[in-house]
Amino acid sequence: MNSRTLSVALCALTASIALSATGAGAVGIVNGGFEADAASVPASGVYFGAITGWNSPGYLISAGYYSATPPEGRIFALLGNGIDTGGYHLSQTITGLTSGSRYTVQFSLASEDFVIPGTIEQVNVWMSAGSTSASQLYSAPVSSNTTPYGSGPLWDHWGVFNYSFLANAASATIDFQQTAATRGSGDTGLDKLSIFAASGGVPEPGSWALMLIGFGALGATLRRRRAMVAA
Fold first, then answer.
1. At what angle are helices 3-22 and 205-230 packed, to 10 degrees?
2. β-strand 102-110 against 89-94: which pairing, if any?
3. pTM over 0.85
4. Please, what's the b/e burial string for 131-148 (b: 16 or more CB within 10 A of its CB; e: otherwise)?
5. CA Rg, the chain, in Å?
6. Block means of pLDDT (10 residues each) for the chain, length 231 residues?
7. What is 122-145 written as a DSSP string?
8. Of 79, 86, 78, residue with least CA distance to 62
9. In 3D, which of 4, 15, 8 has the Cα closest to residue 211?
10. How far, rounded to the nearest angstrom, does the alpha carbon of residue 40 sit from its chain's CA centroid?
């Protein structure tokens, strides 16, 4: 058996292992940077309405609004309704998941203002469908504006956070909600969302079958090669 055949067998094994680790479906956050709706948001302004890829309408903010500096692009979203009442949320249904596999959603948060001294803007993240993973609470970095209801800058200090969940279906809905405890402290900025497969998932039966095929092909190739050498 020549080296080319052995190489093909190794490639088959590698591909089967990769598929078992990540799942065969293409997984992604739709409009995770909110730039798909940039044309609707005025320069240094605010837009409220439907957001591409998201289940709820919401507020989008442009860079420069009260000196805001989003972590990527020009647009970011608000987890709030503009009057600091708390409880507002955005959600998205993620498709292409592999049941039994673990995923991590990465996102950035920033505080609007330093309205009430000692109050931190908090966001609760949970799965409302497709997973039973527990919710998690995140605290957004405080803006550099130290004057309550001051003129800015707002949303200028961003932190990167990760939320991990175990999928139990081919799709799952993730929710981001500003907590009621944040009431009066400003609207939290959300931006730069992405998703990637994490370790710890359990491959589906089809993935195990791909791995067995890969190992079988490699074993058969090695046996034939040893037989030829012996002859």
1. 160
2. unpaired
3. no
4. bebeeeebbbbbbebeee
5. 24
6. 49 46 68 97 94 93 94 94 64 96 97 70 94 96 78 90 98 91 74 87 45 58 63 53
7. EEEEEEEESB-PPPEEEEPPPPS-
8. 78
9. 15
10. 23
